[in-house]
Amino acid sequence: MITVEALTKSYGGTVAVDNVTFKAEPGRVTGFLGPNGAGKSTCMRMMTGLTPPTSGHATILGKKYDELTNPGRHVGVLLDASAQHAGRTGREVLTLGAKTMGLGTDRVDEILDVVGLTPPEAKRRVGDYSLGMRQRLGIGHALLGDPEVLILDEPANGLDPAGIRWMRGLLRSYAERGGTVLLSSHLLHEVEQIADDLVMIGRGRIVRQGTKQELLRGAGTNAHSTDDAALASALQAANIPVQRTQTGIHTPAEPIEVGKIAAANGIVLVQLGQAGGAGLEEMFLNLTAADSREVAR
Ligand SMILES: Nc1ncnc2c1ncn2[C@@H]1O[C@H](COP(=O)(O)OP(=O)(O)OP(=O)(O)O)[C@@H](O)[C@H]1O
């Protein structure tokens, strides 16, 4: 379990993280989602004792990170895969980690196997690794001490599609065994398939959080009819907000409401359903629009 309470970090006049509160529960994967610069890494650095908070606090398994004895045995952390010592081989990085945690070298072989680094790759210097290989090594380092909690900042960065699928399987089975996983991403589709819970952050503030199911339910309806302009007008006349999309209309109303209004107005629906992932994407973009560099210009 990770508990974050009113966590705040200011740098001079800039508030990077503003009163952030959430929990990541055991047995679940929590996706920490936000656009570039939203404050995800700063939050994770505060959770793991690397950056002191301006106010608020975070605990892991009921304790502050600094209070955990042999923290690597309780919480596996991957913050920046590129920060590993470039001159060491992958095996050396893991062996050093294992020694620090009081583990034997057989654990190193086990982990190399888990993360899919071959013996010749393990003998190569990290400086010569691809980003995906560094990411695998970083995930391996986080798993080394068989911790109960994982905190992973953008773990999918640099992984190819097969690697992303592998990572999803790994984290899913880790959570099914009772582990707590918090992983950050700036891409909804990356976390949508794996996360049980979502925490959305924009400009340092939580903009929405809940189970993925709850958020998907609130993601609205997509519809397409033989006359979408007439459908949009009919919905607006019933005081239901509506947006035209490339494939029809999107509205926060439930499908049944849209169906009733279409029927009452003699409009033939071709498609009607909950917006699901597409709606969640729309919600995410709308909620974080104020922070988007694209609209800021
Ligand atoms: N050491 C620092 N000094 C000053 N400002 C900082 C520092 N670290 C982070 N920030 C600022 O805090 C804000 C949040 O940054 P952070 O790296 O936490 O975002 P992020 O959500 O992880 O972004 P990304 O997805 O791009 O990695 C940014 O505006 C950043 O410039």
From TrEMBL:
Sorted alphabetically, which Gene3D superfamilies does this protein's record hold? P-loop containing nucleotide triphosphate hydrolases
Q: Name one Pfam family in it.
A: ABC_tran
Q: Which UniProt keywords apply?
A: ATP-binding, Nucleotide-binding, Transport
Which GO molecular function annotations are given, in alphabetical order? ATP binding
Q: Which InterPro entries match?
A: AAA+_ATPase, ABC_transporter-like_ATP-bd, P-loop_NTPase
Q: Which residues form the ABC transporter domain?
A: 2-228
Q: Where are the transmembrane segments?
A: none
The organism's place on the tree of life at top rank: Bacteria
Q: Which family does it belong to?
A: Belongs to the ABC transporter superfamily.
Name of the protein described by the UniProt record = ATP-binding cassette domain-containing protein
Q: Which organism is it from?
A: Dermacoccus abyssi
